[in-house]
Amino acid sequence: MKKNGYFLDLLKLDVEKYPVIAVVGGGGKTSLIYRLNEELQTIDKKVIISTTTHMAYDPTLPLVGSADLAKVPEILNEQGFVAVADIEKKSGKMCSIEERELKKLVPLCNVMLIEADGAKRKPLKVPADWEPVIPEFADVVISVIGLDCLDRPICEIAHRAEDISAFLKKNPDAPVTAEDIEKIATSVYGLYKNVDHKVYRVYLNKVDVLPDPEPAEQIVKDLTKQGTAAACGSLKEAEEL
């Protein structure tokens, strides 16, 4: 039995006040979104899952494409949740519908969860010029960073290593430090990009891969002192809760 509301509590998400949540950053975004949906189902919330880029599709999810949006209310009433996206033929991934059409669906659900970034499953990234694709109507932005990047060379763990190297002004062979993670998490040229006045959260995933959780806990403390709400944990270990 999974603990109801574990990640909702961990990330201090007030879905009553801030119901549209965009998730950006490194690997773990899709898993976090699917886990949040499970938790929201336990408290009887109607949830729409979507993306403004691309997102791995779980075939067990009911899916509505851009040509059939009129079906969304019926499926929400029957299932409690629905994925709204088109499917890219080549990759089989969910891909975005028009933002204006997605915005029209917000009143139909209690919570909307949107994957708004891509990282090709790498734990760390900084956004390119066109990223992230955060909808203007989003209330919350969650940045995800995989702790398996810590103390490993940028070239091994980064999505577009050259971008991170340039941002950090470090050689691609240099290891990622805790200070690097904090800088990426808080910079307007890093994962704080396009957040504007939205509620912001940082989630450090894969704490289970570290020999000692202390470095992750220290990053959380440092970010909190800087005014950035952050938490660390493990989506893998949470599956057992």
Describe the model.
- There is one protein chain.
- By secondary structure, this protein is of the alpha/beta class.
- Helix content is 29%, strand content 19%.
- It has nine helices and eleven strands.
- It has helices at 6-10, 29-42, 72-79, 99-104, 154-157, 161-168, 178-186, 214-225, 235-238; strands at residues 20-25, 47-51, 54-55, 63-64, 81-84, 86-87, 94-95, 111-115, 140-146, 199-205, 229-232.
- The strands form two sheets. Strands 4-5-2-8-1-9-10-11 form an eight-stranded parallel sheet.
- Helix 7 runs parallel beside helix 8 (214-225).
- The longest helix is centred in the first third of the chain and has 14 residues, at 29-42.
- The mean pLDDT is 95.
Would you kindly provide a brief summary of this structure?
The protein has 241 residues and is an alpha/beta fold. It is 29% helix and 19% strand. The protein contains 9 helices and 11 strands.
